[in-house]
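Hi R.,

As promised on Friday, here is the backbone we talked about, encoded as structure tokens. Could you run it through your design pipeline when you get a chance and send me back a sequence?
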């Protein structure tokens, strides 16, 4: 085990070896091979190329060097192409702060039985008068930046649950194609996180219809991990075997499930 793996439990080390092809004997060589590709993209400003940073991209792409480099390049390219999104990119920014306060995103205190962090969004909490959908995306990305520092989560990943209960048609009208594309590019194509499952629950018909429109733009791997359940409450109903969320985690939730959400970032 190298110092770069010091934050991993024995179980997670074995998981990294078996599932991600992580080998401590070749770890530094793997990192260097990705770093050597940086010169092939002089159009991109790679602001970080240290070992620990590159490692998270290798883990996100199961140590396929070129795929890891492509993700690294897209990470910085996305930030170059959307400069306004990353100005004042901190928890004290007014828009980000309010989105975080409203639970975009919230996180359960317990990990699931695969060691994944469970993130929960209650879509109806969005107050359009105080912050935008872009602010919500910024808050999610900022939270992920903080959480991905944890090497355990680099290996084990995340599960995302979006509860659409009481989400209005007026709110849904703001989910424009350009906004959805921005979110897909930022989360699917440009961030080194492993998402084991994305659950849409309790969505009205117009969200279900919207998903059918955006589904072709999702990668096949992502599509296989999206579970759409009409009028289904994951906090009080058993999770089907098809799902990737451990029911014993969610059963601890009660009707006041939002009170069980952990703040993911300090707002001070």
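Update: got your reply. Pasting your designed sequence below so it's all in one thread:
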């Amino acid at each position: 085990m190298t110092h770069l793996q010091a934050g991993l439990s024995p179980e997670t080390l074995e998981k990294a070896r078996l599932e991600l092809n992580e080998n401590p004997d070749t770890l530094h060589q793997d990192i260097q091979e990705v770093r050597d590709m940086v010169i092939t993209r002089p159009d991109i400003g790679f602001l970080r190329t240290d070992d620990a940073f590159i490692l998270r991209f290798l883990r996100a792409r199961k140590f396929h060097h070129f795929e890891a480099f492509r993700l690294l390049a897209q990470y910085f390219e996305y930030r170059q192409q959307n400069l306004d999104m990353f100005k004042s990119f901190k928890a004290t920014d007014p828009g980000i702060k309010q989105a975080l306060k409203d639970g975009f995103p919230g996180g359960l205190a317990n990990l699931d039985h695969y060691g994944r962090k469970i993130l929960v969004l209650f879509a109806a909490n969005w107050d359009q008068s105080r912050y935008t959908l872009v602010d919500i995306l910024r808050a999610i990305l900022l939270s992920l930046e903080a959480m991905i520092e944890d090497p355990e989560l680099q290996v084990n990943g995340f599960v995302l649950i979006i509860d659409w209960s009481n989400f209005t048609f007026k709110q849904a009208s703001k989910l424009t194609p350009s906004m959805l594309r921005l979110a897909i590019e930022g989360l699917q194509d440009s961030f080194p996180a492993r998402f084991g499952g994305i659950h849409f629950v309790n969505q009205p018909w117009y969200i279900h219809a919207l998903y059918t429109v955006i589904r072709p733009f999702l990668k096949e791997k992502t599509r296989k991990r999206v579970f759409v359940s009409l009028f289904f409450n994951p906090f009080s109903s058993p999770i089907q075997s098809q799902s990737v969320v451990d029911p014993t985690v969610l059963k601890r939730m009660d009707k006041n499930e939002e009170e069980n959400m952990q703040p993911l970032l300090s707002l001070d």
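One thing I noticed while checking it: The domain at 3-81 is CATH 1.10.8.20 (Helicase, Ruva Protein; domain 3).

Thanks again,
M.
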